[in-house]
Amino acid sequence: MKNKRIIDEAEDIRRAVEMVQLGARMQMLEVETRLSREKLLKIYKEVRGVSPPKGMLPFSTDWFMTWQPNVHSSLFMGFHRYFAEAAGLKGLDAIIKSYHLYLDHIEAEQMEPALSLTRAWTLVRFFDADLLQMAPCSCCGGHYVAHAYDPTANFVCGLCNMPSRAGKSKRAVPTRKTRVKAASV
Ligand SMILES: [Zn+2]
Q1: Of the N and C termini of the chain, which has fewer Cβ atoms inside 10 Å?
Q2: Sorted alphabetically, which HAMAP family does this protein's record hold (predicted)?
């Protein structure tokens, strides 16, 4: 059994390195691997060259409802649904695959990713806890992240109902073309 444990640890290290490269915070590494905090700190410092930020994750479901984060989160969740439901991937694998695809799309559009890996991970946990749901937009038919118990009958997404300040940064959200691509994965 000793060999098995070494292989498990090697797999955890590989995952931890990938998560740190993608920007994961310590809280995510501690939940998703069985490595000690000391080992995770070492990995973090080796990969990033600095110590991880301290403190709690400030995330609440409300962050995902603000305009730009909602569009990015909805794009990510579209990929996640595909990997979790159609491709049958579970847990961290589905999250990391979806996050890579999200980054590919954001980079193709020459935008800054609004959603960090840790936020994407938190988003999936909120879905697992039934705090959030996907709501269809009554205008464009796309599916968007919404609070679990909000009525969705007349829901209109942030792209169909853009706030006026959104016009200031025209590269703030994925284009309609990207979203269609995302939906058809
Ligand atoms: Zn819409």
Answers
A1: N
A2: FhlC
How many Å separate Cα 139 from the centre of its chain?
25
Please, which residues have CB within 8 angstroms of residue 69's CB and are 6 or more apart in sequence?
Answer: 63, 114, 115, 119
Average pLDDT, the chain: 88
From the CA of 168, how far away is ligand 1's center (Å)?
20
Predicted TM-score of the model (pTM): 0.84
User: Where are the chain's structural domains?
Assistant: 6-48, 61-147
Quickly count: other Cβ atoms within 10 Å of residue 125's Cβ.
15
CATH of 61-147, one of 1.20.1250, 1.10.150, 1.10.1200, 1.10.10: 1.10.10
140 is in an annotated binding site: yes
Question: How far apart are the CA of 90 and the centre of ligand 1, in A?
Answer: 29
What's the gap in Å between 143 CA and the centre of ligand 1? 8
